[in-house]
Amino acid sequence: MSILRVILGDQLSRSLSALRDINTGEDIVLMMEVRDETTYVKHHKQKLVLVLSAMRHFASSLESEGIDVDYVRLDDPDNSGAFTGELERALRRHRIDRIVTTEPGEWRVLDMMRCWSERFGLPVDIRDDDRFLCSHVEFQTWAAGRKNLRMEFFYREMRRKTGWLMNQDQPEGGEWNYDAENRKSLPDDVTLPACTAYPPDAVTSEVMNLVRQHCGEHFGAIDSFGWAVTREDARDALHWFIDNSLPWFGDYQDAMKTGEDFLFHSVLSPYLNIGLLLPGEVCEAALAAYSASKAPLNAVEGFIRQILGWREYMRGIYWLKMPGYETSNFLNAHRPLPAFYWSGLTDMHCLREAIGNTHDNAYAHHIQRLMVTGNFALLAGIAPAEVEEWYLAVYADAFEWVELPNTHGMALHADGGLLSTKPYAASGAYIDRMSDYCKHCEYSPKDKLGEKACPFNYLYWHFMMRNEARLKSNPRMAMPYRNLYRMTDERREAIVHDAERFLDRLD
Ligand code: FAD
Ligand code: DLZ
Ligand code: SF4
Known about the structure:
The protein is mainly α. Helix content is 49%, strand content 5%. Iron/sulfur cluster binds next to helix 15, helix 19 and helix 20.
């Protein structure tokens, strides 16, 4: 009895459920580079190189164990360009009794997989993806009957479940969350760690040429590619982060600085999301640093919360609400995505920095994504689907299960508050407080109106006015609405005038 084990490009973990009981010498692993996946959004060129090169390295490591891997390359002239088409061809090449796979990270692919059994007349075993710390059933059970889903309460459940940073039933240090200590702006004299890079080997160089040839018009720099493409190098990146950045991760988690693309962030999300690292081992490495007094509690708790809390919560929301989550548009936002999201050509320095980082590295840290590009899209009323397509394309870590809740829910409030209690809307004062960007900008964050005023300032109040009927009853918006109601009619008119002038130019 021969089993075909189908492994996707974000399932590159040896402990994957579809590989667990593999019968070496008998079973065949099928891996497919397909045009549908490389082009369903115009992925950043570095994301393409990362996924395809990591797939090829993973296939080689399986082969070195004696496992038979049937690997379909993108430039195979007979490649049908689709998972289902390649599966059909593979079933012609091999005598197969059963197909085993692990549930994919995206609804669209699960929907496709569910047709395979009927189409091919074979049993198809779609196994749970147990690389996550919370199963679908656990999340559904937690969410059932709750009126409001809040990450903080989910996170506490997960802390209790794992026992991480717990003293019996009490949180380490007495608090569940040290976020209040994690909002420092970066002083000038703080030395930032040099970032790690993994120079392309022969396999990666070949994939880089393939991507240049087939997807040359996609967004992003390719020559500077330095991502790890093997588990060994991803483990090295993890240890590098623990030793060099974790101790300061908490303090400067929300900071931004001109020319500094990574600060004290881990830059591990692409490895977690394609399976080169597992969330449990990443958290355990941080906990070990805390136990050895190499990193303080606010840093380790802050980091664990991102993975055990936010990452698992986002996945839970995605599978709880899909299909259909992406269709809501609570704030009725319809403006097209401005061209500068792709070109970086804008005189707003904060956006130039965030988009520049994205272009150069297929990366931007959380505050750049949420409070710069995300905040601008929210305030300007950009259509959620257009913003979501951009985020899904431009980041090396972007897969719909995590990108969609972050963009649709957290950044754009398009789900009406299912995921977060209030919109993350902010004026230029926030960006000025958390960065040095405004010092390098043509606009002034102190000016509220006029040609030199920071556009985030009048866009913020314009957003508040536009969405008054939808947001004014939200208790967390009470204070800004009180401030709005104190404004004179002349001031409101001036805000509308400046915002409309700016938005007209944007179109
Ligand atoms: P660190 O700051 O070092 O955090 C550590 C880890 O925590 C990350 O590697 C990541 O695995 C996890 N994490 C942190 N915040 C989140 C979060 N909000 N949701 C899920 N995991 C989190 N993350 C993705 O992995 N893929 C995406 O496509 C993605 N799209 C986003 C879109 C928007 C609009 C926003 C606001 C956030 C998005 N995020 C996404 C979340 C977050 O910005 C990235 O996980 C983080 O910037 C990755 O960089 P890092 O590894 O240096 O993270
Ligand atoms: C992102 C991606 C890309 C660019 N290419 C491939 C590919 O050629 N073959 C493959 O198996 N997976 C690829 N992936 C990852 C898939 O898009 C991902 O597995 C699905 O979106 C499900 O999460
Ligand atoms: Fe951004 Fe406004 Fe600051 Fe310029 S002044 S960097 S546009 S926040």
